[in-house]
From TrEMBL:
This is D-amino peptidase. InterPro entries: DppA_N, Peptidase_M55, Peptidase_M55_sf. It comes from the Bacteria. Gene3D superfamilies: Dipeptide transport protein. Pfam families: Peptidase_M55. It comes from Victivallis vadensis.
Length: 257
């Protein structure tokens, strides 16, 4: 069994606001990297408890250089760096995917660090007219590759969002969001124990997870925070100065722009 873990940082246990992921507080940024590694290692442990033979971890926040190999369980491989043409490099042949440390979509009330790919760039993202974030789209991109998403971890709003997009998915709530920069946190030991347990549970029932039905074409609509030069071409429909959309037969390809 090969398991692919895509790890973001905003939904990691112990992180309650933006000061953990910018350069204004170096000590908090360093802590966030440790928190990220702790959640990853707990998830890796849960994978091997469930009988995994191979675990690949994708450092998926920002440019993909947040943790180092020496911080990660040596049984797992680490994928780092930017791969603009592929959302999940190294996922080929995976039997299951875990979305670790995810956050709710842009605009989600009370969610910690809510956004959809870019808080600075996108006000709202819509999938076939429905507001969507990274959870909903990544579940579908994984399905395009034939890989079921079996677990999602994050705050309570991220977990609820995951269940709305993929009923029956295992979720792992590691904090409660009160606002963009405010959360109720649990001790790392409790969070890591919970992640390991939920990971094992999710993988043991992976064959019962139903992937979303994929119907094409699909349409993505970007609503921008500020006006800027919108891409033009035969595959782009400009709605107004801040809104454009694209349609196609692959969610992953539509996100490349």
């Amino acid at each position: 069994m090969k398991v692919y873990i895509f790890c973001d940082i905003e939904g990691i246990s112990g992180i309650a606001g933006g000061c953990y992921i910018d350069n204004s507080r170096p000590e908090l940024l360093a802590a966030a990297r440790r928190f990220m590694a702790g959640d990853i290692n707990a998830c890796v442990e849960g994978c091997f408890r469930a009988g995994a033979d191979e675990v690949v971890v994708r450092d998926g926040h920002g440019s993909g250089f947040n943790v180092t190999c020496e911080m990660i369980d040596p049984r797992a491989d680490l994928v780092q760096g930017v791969a603009p043409r592929c959302r999940f490099p190294g996922a080929e042949g995976a039997d299951a995917m875990i979305l670790l440390g995810y956050h709710a979509m842009a605009g989600a009330a009370g969610a910690v660090l809510e956004h959809s790919y870019s808080a600075a760039g996108f006000q709202t993202l819509r999938f076939n007219g429905r507001p969507v974030g990274e959870i909903g789209l990544d579940i579908r991109i994984a399905a395009e590759h034939g890989i079921p998403v079996v677990m999602v971890s994050g705050d309570d709003k991220a977990c609820r969002e995951a269940e709305e997009w993929l009923p029956g998915v295992t979720t792992c709530q590691v904090k409660t969001g009160y606002d963009t920069h405010c959360a109720r946190l649990i001790a790392p030991e409790r969070a890591h124990r919970l992640i390991a347990e939920r990971t094992t549970e999710a993988l043991r029932r992976r064959t019962s997870v139903r992937m979303p039905e994929l119907e094409y074409p699909v349409t993505l609509r970007w609503e921008l925070v500020e006006r800027h030069a919108v891409p033009t071409g035969p595959d782009v429909t400009v709605i107004d100065a801040r809104t454009y959309e694209k349609s196609g037969d692959s969610v992953e390809k539509l996100l490349i722009w």
